[in-house]
C-alpha cells in the first residue's frame, strides 16, 4: 500500500506493515497482541488515545462500511 488508508476489523497476520509506504491503518486490537504481528522497524504504532482527532474519521469509515455491507459487527463497533 502506498499512501492509502486501511481499516482492519479482524486479526492481522505476521509482519503487518511490510510493503507499506506512507498512509496509515486502523487496526482493531481486541486481543492486545497487535505489536506481535507488526513490523516495528517500518511502522509506528499509536493508539486511539494518542490520536483522538482521528476518531471522527474512523467513525465515518465504519459508518460507510455498515451502510454498504449491513454487517452486525460493524454496528457493534459503532456503539463504542
Care to describe what's here?
This protein has one domain (5-78). Helix 1 runs antiparallel to helix 2 (72-78). The protein has 80 residues and is of the alpha+beta class. Strands 1-2 form a two-stranded parallel ribbon. It has 2 helices and 2 strands. It has helices at 55-69, 72-78, and strands spanning 5-8, 24-27. The termini are far apart. The protein is globular.
Q: Count up the helices.
A: 2
Total number of distinct structural domains: 1
The average pLDDT value, as a whole number, equals 86
Largest sheet: 2 strands, parallel
Percent helix among the residues?
Answer: 25-40%
Order of helices and strands: EEHH
Head-to-tail CA distance between termini: 28 Å
Q: What's the helix and strand layout?
A:
Layout: E1 5-8, E2 24-27, H1 55-69, H2 72-78
Helix pairs in contact: 1-2
Summarize the structure.
The protein is of the alpha+beta class and 80 residues long. It has helices at residues 55-69, 72-78; strands spanning 5-8, 24-27. The chain has one domain.
Annotation keywords:
single chain, two-stranded parallel ribbon, 80 residues, 28% helix, 2 helices, alpha+beta, globular
Amino acid at each position: 500500500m502506498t499512501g492509502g488508508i486501511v481499516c482492519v476489523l479482524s486479526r492481522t497476520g505476521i509482519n503487518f506493515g511490510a510493503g507499506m509506504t506512507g498512509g496509515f491503518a486502523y487496526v482493531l486490537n481486541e486481543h492486545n497482541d497487535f505489536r506481535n504481528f507488526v513490523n516495528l522497524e517500518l511502522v509506528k504504532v499509536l493508539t486511539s488515545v494518542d490520536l483522538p482527532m482521528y476518531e471522527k474519521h474512523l467513525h465515518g469509515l465504519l459508518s460507510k462500511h455498515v451502510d454498504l455491507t449491513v454487517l452486525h459487527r460493524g454496528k457493534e463497533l459503532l456503539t463504542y
